[in-house]
């Protein structure tokens, strides 16, 4: 994105992203902020024209949808009030989801998965689901949505919260799958959360099943 902006406007850009994700993770909606005089006094039709040309420069797996003018002190990461993710799983072999979901062909109890998902709403310390060597001051996260559901033959974990830790969603999914297969009980799952030890969680699910769905900001 920085390279495309630099090529088109012929000066250096420095972008700050709204959410950091592992390589291989997808995003249906993401935001970046930058400072530039290139957009001063530009009308909407001029911005739309710039977006058209920038998308011609960007690689096929990235699309720019909109450019917003914001106040000088706006910060796309720290001003966000919530982020929403979905993790997609398919259980019957198909070539169409191989790079967009996780193939998990084992028997799962969806009721147990949803019991585990519901339990998460009772906690705010997610130390157990943060990968090591992360540079955060707190492991506190407030979740407002946590549910497993079926979408177009895919099993989907949908989670929304004010913030997420490094590897957190994948750690939650991997560990809940153990509940769903009966490898651990719901009580064991609660003990993992309360133990605040990331070595007890399962981060092994691959990144391609994870999608950043939306980042929300104050109106």
Write up what this structure looks like.
This protein is an alpha/beta fold. It folds into two domains: 56 residues, no CATH class; 134 residues, Alpha-Beta Plaits (2-Layer Sandwich), CATH 3.30.70. The protein is 26% helix and 19% strand. The strands form two sheets. Strands 2, 4, 5, 6, 7 and 8 form a six-stranded mixed sheet that branches. A two-stranded antiparallel ribbon has the order 1-3. Strand 6 and strand 7 form a beta hairpin. Helix 3 packs across helix 4. The two termini are 26 Å apart. The model has no long low-confidence stretch (mean pLDDT 91).
How do the strands and helices of this protein lay out in sequence?
Elements: H1 2-9, E1 16-17, E2 26-27, E3 32-33, H2 44-57, E4 82-90, E5 102-103, H3 110-120, E6 143-151, E7 154-161, H4 168-180, H5 186-195, E8 210-216
Parallel strand pairs: 2-8, 4-5
Antiparallel strand pairs: 1-3, 4-7, 4-8, 6-7
Number of discrete helical segments: 5
Question: What structural category do the secondary elements indicate?
Answer: alpha/beta
Q: What is the H-and-E element order?
A: HEEEHEEHEEHHE
Mean pLDDT: 91
| Largest sheet entry | 6 strands, mixed
Principal-axes shape call: globular
Question: What is the terminal-to-terminal distance?
Answer: 26 Å
CATH-wise, what's the superfamily of the largest domain?
Pseudouridine synthase I, catalytic domain, C-terminal subdomain
- Which assembly state applies to the chains in this document? single chain
CATH A-level architecture of the largest domain? 2-Layer Sandwich
**What's the total number of strands?**
8
Number of individual domains: 2
> What fold name stands as the CATH topology of the largest domain?
Alpha-Beta Plaits
* Gyration radius from CA atoms, angstroms: 20 Å
* Percentage of residues in strands: 15-25%
Which parts are unreliable, with pLDDT below 50 for 5 consecutive residues or more? none
Q: Which CATH class of the largest domain applies here?
A: Alpha Beta
């Amino acid at each position: 994105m920085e390279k495309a902006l630099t090529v088109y406007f012929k000066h250096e850009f420095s972008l700050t992203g709204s959410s950091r994700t592992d390589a291989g993770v997808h995003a249906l909606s993401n935001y970046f902020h930058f400072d530039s005089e290139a957009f001063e006094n530009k009308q909407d039709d001029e911005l739309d024209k710039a977006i058209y040309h920038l998308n011609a420069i960007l690689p096929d797996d990235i699309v720019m949808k909109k450019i917003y003018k914001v106040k000088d002190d706006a910060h796309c990461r720290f001003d966000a009030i919530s982020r929403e993710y979905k993790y997609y799983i398919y259980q019957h072999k198909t070539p169409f989801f191989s790079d967009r979901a996780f193939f998990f062909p084992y028997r799962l109890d969806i009721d147990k998965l949803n019991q585990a998902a519901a339990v998460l709403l009772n906690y705010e310390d997610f130390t157990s689901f943060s990968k090591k060597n992360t540079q955060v001051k707190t492991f506190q996260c407030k979740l407002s949505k946590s549910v497993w559901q079926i979408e177009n033959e895919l099993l989907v974990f949908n989670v929304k919260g004010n913030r997420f830790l490094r590897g957190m969603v994948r750690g939650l999914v991997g560990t809940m799958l153990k509940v769903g297969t009966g490898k651990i009980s719901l009580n064991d799952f609660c003990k993992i959360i309360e133990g605040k030890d990331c070595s007890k969680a399962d981060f092994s699910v691959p990144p391609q099943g994870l999608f950043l769905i939306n980042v929300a900001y104050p109106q």
